Amino acid sequence: MSGHGVGTPNRRARGCRSRVEPRRPSCASGRLGHVHVLIAPHSFGPLLPSTVATEHLEAGWLEARPDDRVEGLPMSDGSAGFLEALAPLGELDVLTVPAASGEPGPIGVVRTAAGAVYLTTESWNAPAARPDPTRANSRGLGEAIGRAITAGTRRIVLAAGDVPWHDGGTGLVEGLAATLGLERAGDPAASLPAGTAGADALAHLEAAARALAGVELVVAAQTDAPLLGLHGAGAGLAARGIDPARAQAIEARTTRFIAAAEALAARWAPRNLLATGGETNERRPSRRPSSGAGGGAAFVLGLLGARTLPGAWVVAEELRLSGAIARVDLVVTGARVLADRELSHGVVAEVGSRAEPHALPVVAIGGRIDATFRQLATVGVHGSYPVIDTGPGEVPDLEAITPQALRARAARVARSWSR
Fold first, then answer.
1. Which of 36-40, 187-191, 272-276 is the least confident region?
2. How many beta carbons lie within 10 A of that of residue 144, not counting itself?
3. Which residue, 137, 203, 287, 345, is the most exposed by fewest CB within 10 angstroms?
């Protein structure tokens, strides 16, 4: 199933979709009275990634309805659980490349028989790693991509989300240049004053584009934040607890490189600047949605020809979620929190949107549900349940979500939805 190309997501506003009344689970699976269920959740927290959550939701369902047919398809939006969700498509490998701090460290990748490689910026998000944000960079990511290309990989899918750096992708280019042995450009337009952040990256940018010309690059973005601007990648650093003034100073260091890179790329590869996978009215690539994913990795890879697409959509395509949905009677999804991004470009919204053309009922389970029935219905969810019941006015304790709690809730949902 691996190695197939990724198309373009349907950007139609979910709130404007015509409603399709779901059919109630029946004997569509071919066994009278038995229901064919697909369980396709997101992560429920660091200790309950989608693979583990899927396992326990399946077990709970079958405890209540042992004769039902249950399939599991763990999902991801490009953040936690990306490699685990795609692991069935290939083999897990480990590379040693620089961590965000510059020290060597192991990262995981998934290699498929068809020659594709999946990797994720989550590999640089180890809880114990707290690099100096003024020194943290994406060089290791560039080295990982370069080593994949050296090994003959012709298709790379990078899941990019929140990271401990904001270097505008300069480290990524430097890592590519070092791994692939790229030459510096002699073009004056490809130079910055000595000592300027990103000077070395800019000098290698065009050579990097040539080296990647025959490689299909897809960025599965977990965030829609741009690289620059009030709500850009700099704001993501502030969300990590970094002083806003310091985060702004870190961003300011990259602005000369970013402007020069945009101007340079527009000269030798103007079509690459349109490679966003969706429509946008923003002319500057650094201001486009998701260009801030991976601390600017999405931005610089876009200049090098990558397409940047919503992470949940990319994972759904890679795992052929639509085909799995077409085979079943009922879909169960879920996430740690049902709100905001999860209901716009997250896993729950993606699952619901793909089930709606089949008129299938979709049930969502959430550690916390911060959405109305109407908001859930808009993304194709017909029923929602908390993992743990709470009294009026009580706030669910997300840390109390355990495998046993998921099993118990799945069993109760099965008794309600399976006949």
1. 272-276
2. 27
3. 287
